[in-house]
Design a protein that fits this description.
This protein is mainly α. The structure holds protoporphyrin IX containing FE (HEM) and 2-acetamido-2-deoxy-beta-D-glucopyranose (7 copies).
């Protein structure tokens, strides 16, 4: 039999099983919301189903090295490339640190964010699994770094999926309620120019980054009646303000002392391109420092987690402890609600991935959740 004939027959299996809408299901699309029968129909189309995989080893050299090098040239996005709301992951894909098409394994993300940006191994693993468990495919161990495009006739949202990891008050992407939640928006980026001019002498300093963060939150409070800003989004949105400061600055020091230029910021946020001669930061950006920088911004901004109950009507949620333990628990509970009744290999893979996710926290004081039993 010719390979094409075989592929056609495989593609027809879901029709045979009575699920025509699931034909050509992309291998990186989340299986959330499918019944056990639908999961079986979809799984019959996958080339390979490795299930949950262990974390890759950490990289060994964490010094500052040239990362915009000859081995990793920038190639502008092709029509078939998936890109999303994360300027870090978009840049890694556009330079080939991640597969350029944007369909990746968690292991590839964890290695690439260390290689390209010196994000710390433990924090990188935590962040990656925070998105993978809700937005990835537990059977194929694949996910997409975004894009609300159609692949093989199916919508593929990946990490764009609003309310999972993606959320409101992004720095350069609109709220889902207001518009496109994953594409670069120049108008929103201009709040950086304003902040840099007001308090940073034209540069994105720590103070300018905090001001920009506050401007973007206030804009969502003023215009988005469905603005939602509780953990995990609350911590995520504020941590991300630390990310670009810690990792988009050429040869940044361990103490995050150097400011970011507007041109370099736009290169990452808008073009997904490393500036010329870009050296990754000196030393890994790891959990203790992430927490310190995040909570420093929390103090500077003065906003607490909460929700908009109508435009300009922000209601603080005093029950939200804004901790990384709580972040983990909210993502586990969301996963449990997305997969109320998994069976067989899918259940086994989700359980193993949740175990890995807990371990990435590296904090035995965080209570572990077992929505599918121990
Ligand atoms: C470890 C895996 C990572 C995952 C799964 C991830 C995922 C995401 C997601 C889903 C968002 C959208 C949040 C939102 O605005 O609603 C985001 C935003 C962001 N990410 Fe990543 N990210 C990762 C690593 C990185 C790295 C290494 C960097 C920087 C070097 C980075 C920098 C940012 C920044 C600055 C934003 C905010 C964008 C904006 O608000 O306009 N991320 N990320
Ligand atoms: C994303 O795709 C879904 C399904 O095709 C569509 O309903 C939604 O409006 C799209 N969202 C954006 C922001 O383009
Ligand atoms: C950018 O964001 C602004 C503010 O939400 C919005 O008015 C504008 O339409 C957006 N631009 C694009 C191209 O989506
Ligand atoms: C954001 O809004 C709060 C509450 O109205 C206000 O105190 C704060 O100054 C505003 N921040 C900015 C940067 O506009
Ligand atoms: C990076 O910064 C360190 C000191 O902060 C300096 O010694 C080194 O020369 C810099 N490297 C490059 C390539 O700029
Ligand atoms: C803000 O800065 C960026 C990068 O330098 C530039 O492209 C953009 O035009 C500036 N926007 C305004 C309103 O000056
Ligand atoms: C961050 O670390 C500095 C220096 O160790 C310390 O002075 C500061 O209190 C810490 N801030 C937070 C919010 O943890
Ligand atoms: C998660 O779900 C469990 C079980 O339903 C519940 O006891 C717990 O309070 C939830 N935790 C969070 C942080 O939502």
């Amino acid at each position: 039999m010719k390979p094409q004939t075989f592929a056609t027959i495989v593609a027809l299996i879901p029709y045979v099983l009575g699920f025509p809408h699931l034909a050509n299901f992309p291998e990186h699309r989340s299986l959330a919301g499918l019944s056990p029968e639908e999961v079986r129909a979809v799984a019959s189309q996958f080339d390979s189903m490795p299930g949950a995989q262990p974390l890759p080893p950490p990289i060994s050299d964490t010094s500052s090295i040239l990362v915009n090098d000859a081995d990793h040239p920038f190639i502008p996005d092709q029509p078939s490339d998936l890109r999303g709301p994360c300027p870090g992951l978009n840049t890694l894909a556009a330079h080939g640190y991640l597969p350029r098409q944007g369909v990746v394994t968690p292991g590839q993300i964890i290695t690439a964010v260390q290689e390209g940006f010196n994000m710390g191994y433990h924090f990188a693993s935590f962040l990656c699994y925070s998105a993978f468990i809700t937005d990835g495919n537990h059977l194929t161990n694949l996910m997409s770094i975004g894009a609300n495009t159609t692949t093989k006739g199916q919508p593929t949202t990946g990490i764009d999926t609003h309310g999972h990891f993606e959320g409101d008050a992004s720095l350069t992407r609109d709220d889902a309620y207001l518009g496109n939640n994953f594409m670069f928006n120049q108008t929103l980026f201009n709040a950086f120019n304003e902040s840099a001019a007001q308090v940073g002498n034209g540069m994105i300093t720590f103070e300018a980054a905090a001001l920009d963060r506050a401007i973007r939150i206030n804009d969502s409070i003023a215009r988005n009646p469905e603005f939602s800003f509780e953990t995990p989004r609350f911590l995520g949105a504020i941590a991300e303000t630390g990310f670009f400061f810690a990792m988009f600055v050429n040869n940044q020091t361990v103490d995050n002392e150097k400011p970011l230029s507007l041109n370099d910021a736009e290169s990452f946020f808008g073009n997904h391109e490393f500036p010329q001669g870009f050296y990754r930061r000196q030393g890994p950006y790891e959990f203790p420092m992430v927490k310190n920088v995040t909570y420093t911004f929390v103090d500077m901004i003065g906003v607490k987690p909460g929700n908009n109950n109508g435009v300009n009507n922000y209601v603080v949620n005093p029950e939200d402890p804004m901790t990384f333990c709580y972040f983990y628990q909210k993502q586990v509970n969301l996963t449990a609600s997305l997969y109320p009744n998994p069976t067989g290999a899918l259940k086994q893979a989700i359980k193993a991935n949740l175990q890995t996710y807990y371990e990435t926290l590296g904090d035995p004081t965080c209570e572990q959740y077992f929505p599918y039993g121990q």
